[in-house]
Design goal:
Layout: H1 2-34, H2 38-56, H3 58-73, H4 80-91, E1 97-98, E2 103-110, E3 121-135, E4 143-154, E5 163-177, E6 186-197, E7 207-219, E8 222-231, H5 244-248, E9 251-259, E10 262-270, E11 279-289, E12 292-305, E13 315-324
Antiparallel strand pairs: 1-3, 2-3, 2-13, 3-4, 4-5, 5-6, 6-7, 7-8, 8-9, 9-10, 10-11, 11-12, 12-13
Helix pairs in contact: 1-2
């Protein structure tokens, strides 16, 4: 397990070093350009472009290489649809796209010591993808998706480095665009079914199912996303967390503000019960990461109830830092 820790830290180190090299080259090129040495500056810009293409597009190049090999060695197929199917198999193309943020936060600190003996510093990471299933089935220019989000809290700095908690969130949803640019601030809707669970046995098992509705509004650079949900009732004997709505409420509000190469996101949630008020707030900031175009520095601050399913009824203040692979 120590080998895994060292490997993760080395990967992070080499990513920073490579990005730092690009940053230095870029500064040198800018200096040459300012001094009027345009030829030398252009040569450096070319080196930067080659390095970025090598580091940021290696996966795409590999897929293109597979397709090229396919066309060279596979016997020609007369039927176009059959040929496309074989090409998909060879190139492993199945149109997966980033959904929510994909990040690895090697330093995530809980400000309070917990009675279960967990380490206050751990790693947190999230993988989130979506796949379009069908477009415009109902004539509303809508798209039906399958989505999956996987969030883990990893006690990386403890001796056995266990995964303390993992939340699994498969869902099916449809997005429906609305209105036209500059005509209305309402830009679209999203309706879905979401299952969320932590895959553990009782008494640590947690799960719930929801139907939800999101709306998207735009005011300049600010995007406002209110979301409401309805929890699908469960049998009393099978309900692992019957009071979860007392802590998680019935909806949330997301504010997203992109500014140049930065994004600022604030998630707010409240049970709206003023006699026993419970809430949650999470602030995310993604910013340029040493000149990389598809990797970002990531800071996450959160406070309140619902940090994870196992801790839905505990108040947690958390500070996390790392890198994000999507926004």
């Amino acid at each position: 397990m120590k080998l895994i820790k060292i490997l993760f830290l080395h990967i992070l180190f080499f990513a920073i070093v490579n990005a730092n090299d690009l940053d230095k080259l870029y500064e040198e090129a800018q200096s040459l350009e300012s001094d009027g040495n345009y030829k030398e500056a252009m040569l450096l810009y070319k080196r930067i472009a080659i390095k970025e293409r090598t580091s940021n597009r290696s996966y795409i190049d590999e897929e293109q290489k597979k397709v090229k090999v396919f066309k060279e060695i596979i016997d020609p197929i007369e039927d176009k649809e059959t040929a496309e199917t074989i090409e998909q198999i060879v190139a492993s193309k199945f149109n997966l796209y980033p959904y929510h943020e994909n990040y690895f936060l090697p330093f995530s600190y809980d400000t309070k010591k917990r009675v279960d003996g967990r380490g206050q510093t751990e790693a947190k990471f999230q993988l989130s993808v979506k796949k379009p299933i069908v477009d415009n089935l109902f004539g509303l220019n809508e798209t039906i998706y399958f989505g999956y989000t996987h969030t883990s809290w990893w006690q990386l700095y403890e001796d056995s480095a266990p995964f303390r908690e993992t939340n699994y969130k498969p869902e099916v949803f449809v997005t429906i665009p609305y209105g036209k640019s500059n005509k209305t601030s309402l830009k679209g809707f999203k309706l879905g079914f979401l299952h969320e669970s932590n895959g553990q046995n009782k008494p640590e098992s947690r799960s719930w199912n929801r139907l939800y509705l999101e709306s998207y509004f735009q005011a300049g650079n600010l995007f406002i996303v209110p979301k409401i949900w309805y929890r699908i009732p469960e049998k009393e004997k099978e309900d692992d967390n019957p009071d979860i709505e007392d802590y998680m409420g019935y909806g949330d509000l997301t504010l997203l503000y992109p500014y140049k190469k930065h994004t600022f996101k604030l998630l707010l949630r409240n049970n709206l019960n003023f006699s026993d008020n419970k809430g949650f707030a999470e602030f995310d900031w993604s910013f340029p990461f040493f000149g990389s175009k598809n990797t970002f520095g990531y800071l996450q601050l959160s406070t309140g109830y619902g940090d994870s399913l196992i801790d839905y009824d505990k108040e947690i203040n958390r500070m996390s830092f790392g890198i994000s692979l999507s926004r």
